[in-house]
């Protein structure tokens, strides 16, 4: 079981690197608009699945289109949350520069997609939890800065409540950091106040592919993962080697995804309802 090392992890002294703060953390205040008709959020939970990026990207755009049509007819629509993993892929934002690719794009190690989200190049792959909120900001707060800070808040709460890891924001940058390691990246698109794309949290991710890019266009910055931080803690505290074998990747993904959905529902004050889908729409591989 992984719960034992998580409880052990809560005893980290404040002087360790894992508790280093780039910016003092203040809980995000949230005020839902008073005319909100529904607090429901449908959740497509595919956290154990590895979904091709192009399929998930097309799916998001289809949901956005449907929500716009619903709003035109009825004036409202339920929010949607998608949680999944991707096959190895690099994605670039609308204005991303190829100077941040450490390879010839014609000979890329993985597929490269230029999308309509904001931000620079990043990597997605197995072991990284992707959360795509497709929500109507008219029912939350029509403020993109606030929305990005809310996504960061979700991850900060996950790391704190589930793993006792004290994470922080960095002034002027988007994402969530633990010391000098960036654990979560955000890139969004908003169309008629409907959001899509979202956040990526490194849980058990193989970080090697990040070496072939300049992640998010930030040179001289490290990328980290939850598993990597747990292993660093165990090694530095000389935990029993047998305990380290309890760090099962799929179990760690499962625990992290449950916490992500819980904290998302609390930050955005939504009642999340699981919704099924036809798996035949995707060529899916198990975790």
From TrEMBL:
Broadest EC class assigned to this enzyme: transferase
Superkingdom, natural source: Eukaryota
Keywords on record: Acyltransferase, Transferase
Record CDD domains: LipB (cd16444)
EC number per UniProt: 2.3.1.181
Record-annotated BPL/LPL catalytic domain positions: 75-272
A GO MF label: lipoyl(octanoyl) transferase activity
InterPro entries, A to Z: aa-tRNA-synth_II/BPL/LPL, BPL_LPL_catalytic, Octanoyltransferase, Octanoyltransferase_CS
GO process terms (BP): protein lipoylation
Pathway as given in its UniProt record: Protein modification; protein lipoylation via endogenous pathway; protein N(6)-(lipoyl)lysine from octanoyl-[acyl-carrier-protein]: step 1/2
PANTHER family, per the entry: LIPOYLTRANSFERASE 2, MITOCHONDRIAL-RELATED (PTHR10993:SF7), OCTANOYLTRANSFERASE (PTHR10993)
Similarity comment: family membership: Belongs to the LipB family.
Protein name: lipoyl(octanoyl) transferase
Taxonomic lineage from the root: Eukaryota, Viridiplantae, Streptophyta, Embryophyta, Tracheophyta
